Amino acid sequence: MAKKKEVTRRQFLNYSLTGVGGFMAAGMLMPMVRFAIDPLLKEGAKQDFVPVMDTSEITDKPVRKEFKIDQVDGWYESEVTQSAWVYKDEKDEIVALSPVCKHLGCTVDWSSNPAYPDQFFCPCHAGRYTKDGVNVPGTPPLAPLDVYNKKVEDGKLYLGKPEPR
Amino acid sequence: MKWTEADIALFEKEKEYVDTVVLPLVPISMTNNMKTIVSMGEYISIISNELERQLKGRLLLLPAYTYLISEEQTFKTDRLKKIEVELHKGGIKHIITLTADVEWKQVEDQISSALLWMPAIPLEHMDEQYKMETVSAQVKQVLQFVTNTWQSNINS
Prior knowledge:
The structure holds two protein chains of two kinds. Chain A is an alpha+beta fold. Helices cover 25% and strands 33% of the residues of chain A. Chain A has helices at 2-5, 9-46, and strands at residues 50-54, 63-73, 76-88, 94-97, 109-110, 120-121, 128-129, 147-153, 156-163. Chain B is of the alpha/beta class. Chain A: This is Menaquinol:cytochrome c reductase iron-sulfur subunit. Chain A: Pfam families: Rieske.
């Protein structure tokens, strides 16, 4: 009986070789798997929402809100300032537009040109957008302003990434 | 637009829309008053970067024009004039030079660029929020200056 339970030298070597081999295989495979699923892991981190303002402050007049996000650019990690034009439309829904002009990327301003009140105006090449962010035909921009991903939680407005329409 | 490959590619494609260059004038010294000299350069680079962010589509931010604080003014001015000639050759209509060094004020009439001098504000001990407000208030006025330069050109 006692003999049957004893581990022979051959068995012992087999077990330990499998064990060590297993560790080595795991050591090789783990980084490979990590590399393979890395894009998935990253995506989650990028979708971060940033609190911008209280929803009670939002009126039908667009206001410019600045907020900071972390941006990784190659090896250079930095905090960048982003802005959004926030207002409520006729259906009382919150709208957050990116102020980056679709022409060449200047920052547009709300009704800054006396000739065109109630429009977004780009100081660089006089591009114009109506209040809902749609470009006015005949001005340089060829697409409407980007819209921020947004959510409301506990009376606060959170903004994510701007998406083109 | 910045002085990077990606932005320059865009610049070459959209050349007709980009007619302005921003050139920060930054002094260098390793021997005396280093901190003051550095704060001038730092402040100007913060302002010019922010300016570039707001008016990306029409202006090109050049790498800073650096000079020794001990360098003779005529020499610095001549060198700047050569840069101006080169930029105009490249189709640039407006050159805006930003500096915190008051010396440039004296040679303002000799250069063709629009010189904007502003005293450097020491940002070192300010907290983040206050720093942002100070800089954005300054930038707002610089923006005004730049858009006025564009407008006066349309009228003339």
